[in-house]
Specification:
Elements: H1 3-19, E1 36-38, E2 50-54, E3 59-63, E4 69-74, E5 87-90, E6 93-108, E7 114-116, E8 130-142, E9 149-152, E10 166-168, H2 170-179, E11 185-189
Parallel strand pairs: 2-11, 9-10
Antiparallel strand pairs: 1-4, 2-3, 3-4, 5-11, 6-7, 6-8, 8-9
Length: 217
């Protein structure tokens, strides 16, 4: 066999390696997971803080007495027909874990196996051998007498998901909960936060020295 033909596969392999274009992974922005940011310089312990919840941006801020933003997180308000009420409230109840007496499941008493996942939609008597188990609402802060509160719960960012409560990611809600106490003011509104956002800071203008850049509106 000719040496020329023996070297042909090697040459083709070399050319293929030389002409291949390396691919660079493209980062895909996560637009569904909740975001949060905690100001690490925030003072320890609970005190005179307040909560500001914007239904327009579906975010909540924890503010110090002087208005400084201690923390901010994405939240999820009520679904259409179960809208989270707007207004000025105060924390009425603070519990590390509360279970809903309105929304829950029927589970087997011995194994805790779920028999009816949405008990509030169940028609007829409770299934035999089951007990009611309310949905867990960790780091509960009640704001209305009829059951609206702020608590940990799953959701996709920017989507309403509750029956009126404000659902939050766990880590920042624990921080909010630790800083708040019964009586802490809570303002829920349809506008933007009066304080600067930790999650959506204003864009930095380029081409000018910092002292000449226009302040945020």
């Amino acid at each position: 066999m000719s040496v020329r033909f023996l070297l042909l596969p090697v040459a083709l392999s070399f050319l293929s390696a030389c002409t291949s274009v390396p691919t660079t992974p493209v980062a895909v922005e996560d637009t569904t997971s909740a975001r949060w940011k905690i100001n690490e310089s925030a003072p320890a312990g609970s005190g005179q803080v307040r909560i500001d919840i914007s239904l327009a941006s579906s975010t909540a801020q924890l503010l110090a007495k002087d208005g400084a933003v201690l923390a901010e997180m994405d939240v999820s308000p009520g679904l259409p027909g179960h809208e989270t009420p707007a207004g000025n409230f105060r924390v009425k109840e603070k519990l590390p874990l509360k279970r809903s007496n309105l929304y829950g499941q029927y589970v087997r008493q011995d194994s805790r196996e779920v028999v009816v996942a949405r008990a509030w939609e169940h028609k007829g008597p409770r299934p035999e051998g089951t007990v009611y188990q309310g949905i867990a609402m960790p780091f509960w802060l009640r704001v209305t007498d009829d059951g609206v509160g702020i608590h940990v719960g799953g959701f996709n960012r920017g989507q309403p998901s509750s029956h009126g409560c404000v659902r939050c990611p766990e880590e920042p809600q624990q921080f909010f909960w630790e800083k708040c106490r019964v009586g802490t003011p809570v303002h829920i509104h349809h506008g933007e936060h009066p304080a600067p956002s930790l999650l959506n800071p204003p864009p930095v203008l380029t081409g000018q020295p910092p002292e000449q850049q226009a302040p945020p509106a």
